[in-house]
Amino acid sequence: MTVEELQLKLVRYGDSGAEKPGLLGADGHVRDLSGIVDDIGPATLAPESLQRLAAIAPETLPIVPAGMRLGPCVGGTRKMVCIGLNYRDHAVEAGKAVPSEPMIFMKAISAIVGPNDDVLVPRGAERMDLEVELGVVIGTRAKYVTEADARAHVAGYCLVNDLSERNFQSRREGQFTKGKSCDTFGPVGPWLATPDEIGDVHQLRMFSEVDGVTFQNSTTADMVFKVPFLISYLSQFFTLEPGDIIATGTPAGVGMGKKPPEFLRAGQTIRIGIDGLGVQRQVLIADQ
Length: 288
Known about the structure:
It is a single chain. This protein has 288 residues and is α+β, with helices and mostly antiparallel strands. It is 13% helix and 28% strand. It has one domain (72-286): Fumarylacetoacetase-like, C-terminal domain (Fumarylacetoacetate hydrolase, domain 2, Alpha-Beta Complex). The strands form 5 sheets. Strands 5-4-16-9-10 form a 5-stranded mixed beta sheet, with no helix packed on it. The protein has a 5-stranded mixed beta sheet with strand order 7-18-17-14-15, with no helix packed on it. Strands 3-2-1-13 form a 4-stranded antiparallel beta sheet.
């Protein structure tokens, strides 16, 4: 059984910093995997480990009590690599040319939080924005890989909200990092879906909304640079390690692109989702 033939939805549940591994069954129950693996992290993402998990009958595992907090669906992430302007319509709304090569920036891993955790509005924020994105989770070390071999290095996919503070990002000099890496600016999850669980990763509907109003409504088919190309491209510059996450870009409809712009503020509620990868819900609160 190859990774491409697995059908798993893996989660991490419990208090922040003390999450336990779990499996989301077809019945909607989260099942405890802590007697099988220590975490959903780099060691668990190896093909042989995923194959072992896929062979387990979910009904034999303990049910996790309903309402338990879900943490980031991957632990032990060392890099979160983001791709900018990877949807043509988003490049247009940003007033930028579509890149001839992928635009790369990093989001600090300290920004990573659970899919439904509160999001902090940083002190001094004036132009805070949301971005629904497909996340690619690396399962095996990738260095100088070809596009044809790239998919073999994917453990699965997840939902990512690449939150941004546009003033910090673009109007205060330097690189994007400070506008992308604020605390809580990287919700990940609710689950990691192995590739066969979601089918064609380039045909997934994606949306975002704020207080029930739709902002983004698109599909991953509109990516400029597709997943295998991105993995191969990135691996020419640095090694992708198990547990690393690639956030593959966002479509048009972000607050910055509206006329007039509509930026986020404390008290609002965000919802984002991608077919097969679930839905996130975050309440925005002022950072103290």
